[in-house]
Amino acid sequence: MSEIRQDPVVGRWVIVATDRARRPNEFANSVAAPPEPETDPFAEGNERLTPPEIQAVRAPGSRANGPGWKARVVPNRFPVLRIEGALEKEGEGLYDRISGTGAHEVVIETPVRGQELEDLPLDHIAAVIGLWRARMTDLLKDARFRYLLVFKNRGWQAGATLSHSHSQIIALPVTPMAVKQKLAGAQAYYERKERNIFADILRQELKDGRRIVYQNGAFVAFCPYAARFPFEICVMPRRQCADFYRIGDQELLPFADALKACLLRLRVGLDRPQYNVILHTAPARHPKRDYWSTLDQDFRWHLEITPRLTQIAGFEMGTGFYVNPVMPEEAAQFLKEVEA
Amino acid sequence: MSEIRQDPVVGRWVIVATDRARRPNEFANSVAAPPEPETDPFAEGNERLTPPEIQAVRAPGSRANGPGWKARVVPNRFPVLRIEGALEKEGEGLYDRISGTGAHEVVIETPVRGQELEDLPLDHIAAVIGLWRARMTDLLKDARFRYLLVFKNRGWQAGATLSHSHSQIIALPVTPMAVKQKLAGAQAYYERKERNIFADILRQELKDGRRIVYQNGAFVAFCPYAARFPFEICVMPRRQCADFYRIGDQELLPFADALKACLLRLRVGLDRPQYNVILHTAPARHPKRDYWSTLDQDFRWHLEITPRLTQIAGFEMGTGFYVNPVMPEEAAQFLKEVEA
């Protein structure tokens, strides 16, 4: 059973998830070998190796937990949080903890081992994005959950423990500090200027042009002005919307197109880098609470792609500063010119 | 020339340090080979391979930039910030940047290649700590600098690019957000309770005992209640003092003793893990500003040792949450029993 502990000084949350614990001598920093075809739990035909599926995009007539699928959502076999049980909050002297209640799901993006998200046709990527949307819409019905994070780890240094292409969804019983800071920044800007900061960023990026990597009718991809990582990319919708789960049907293919264009450019230009994909969206807003009631004006959902070419070292950990050795303008120029 | 850019939404700072830039195809994630004896810039006899030394602990009669030293401080050859030039602040539309003014120094901890900090005798470690103190005391005279960070990266995943044992000092022209959050948390606690939160933490840890790793007359080492990393250790002075640079002469040997005890236990127990060491201290407080005027009551300097056995993945990056697979109580018990 896991528990969520809060740092008493800075308020940062930590999930202590001992179900995933290894013995001290099992922390060797070795790269996990790609699974053999017969033991890959995410390959078609091996559906028995995962917990029963929650949802899937399937061929007509195929049966749940059997072959015939394009993408599948299953519970994480080693979840950091568990869906069972009431939320319990408890103090211990000056410390605070919460029971490890939440959800942790895996979106298997393709039945084919070795195929990456960016290899898939646009309608298949759009189907994966549709599964993110569907799972978020469903999980938001659970009033215990305050924040839902969709993310993807590619490569072991980016945190992936399985090489078969997948993304993950975690539902949290508290709103993370990093999310609150982002929302507070956006709200403060709106209060001062009565303008949405993401709209202003997009306007300035399009006018300037030097940091644009790719754009289509509904999305713009650019290297952020204060990018933390070399070749970091932000994908921003042109349409104002705080919640990713309210992405329109007509936006799914353009979003898939922008995502594919960025991932292909990174792969070709940087020789298959390890990376993370992080979806930033507004927290759950239950009608009975009026937290974040202005987010529809203040905030806009967006996606970050962060190649992991540099290490997070003592300086970053001690200050929250990042050191980026590549000017975002040069990174964007390089990625724009990659033939992908 | 580097510049410091601020994220317009969350206020996070990023140093874009292009002097350290590599071409896109040079970001291969390869482990740097340990240098050969004749090319190790930090080895005795190779002093000509570093910039001229700023300070050193030397045998009587030995000459600067020649052999005969125990520990040496030199400017970083690839600094993230440069000492030259006035601080310039500039806007660009809604973005903000500062010139890359600061200092970046390297403390070479031993003349002997392959020797680690924890291998050194206590008086040698105390001499290294004395150099940290001396450099901070000196850099604090420069009114451009707001925050000084002492840190150490051990192993390439922890950010080390040279394997010869060393630590680093960076002087920053702004107070980092992560530091401000820590100070604000400590101040809020004091306002509420009129007690120092670090004193309260120490009292609770000593009374509870389950998370204590090591202690002597002046320092206590424990695994924090909400440790982000497995086997993370905090070393806290028993004496209330906000600024590390005001550590007393009589505290140098006990601090060296606690640091050595922790590093040896990690090395033996976890088979030479990669790790970071981070010194948390109060920011520069110039007489003309009254920022942080209550820190002497609120804050206490301390040191964090964070083994890097797990990866920082999309979930951590998207939320600021951490996932720790080992209960801090079990980590402390394990480390306490290591025969080191």
3D architecture notes:
Two copies of one chain form a homodimer. Chain A is of the alpha+beta class. Chain A has two domains: about 5-170, HIT family, subunit A (2-Layer Sandwich); about 175-335, HIT-like (HIT family, subunit A). Chain A has seven helices and 15 strands. In chain A, the strands form two sheets. Chain A has a ten-stranded antiparallel β-sheet, with helices on both faces. In chain A, strand 5 and strand 6 form a beta hairpin. In chain A, helix 1 (about 120-140) crosses helix 4 (about 250-270). The first copy, chain A, is globular, with a radius of gyration of 20 Å. The relative contact order of chain A is 0.13. The model of chain A has no long low-confidence stretch (mean pLDDT about 90). Chains A and B meet through strand 2, strand 8, strand 9, helix 2 and helix 3 of A and strand 2, strand 8, strand 9, helix 2 and helix 3 of B. Strand 2 (about 15) of chain A pairs parallel with strand 15 (about 320-325) of chain B.
* CATH topology group of the largest domain in chain A: HIT family, subunit A
* CATH class term of the largest domain in chain A: Alpha Beta
Reading side by side through the largest sheet of chain A, how are the strands ordered? 3-4-7-9-8-13-14-12-11-10
What portion of the residues of chain A fall into strands of 2 or more residues?
A: 15-25%
For this structure, what is the CATH homologous superfamily of the largest domain in chain A? HIT-like
Largest sheet of chain A: 10 strands, antiparallel
Mean pLDDT of chain A: 92
Radius of gyration of chain A: 20 Å
Interface with most residues: A-B, 94 and 94 residues
Oligomeric state of shown chains: homodimer
Give a count of the beta strands of chain A, DSSP E runs of length 2 or more: 15
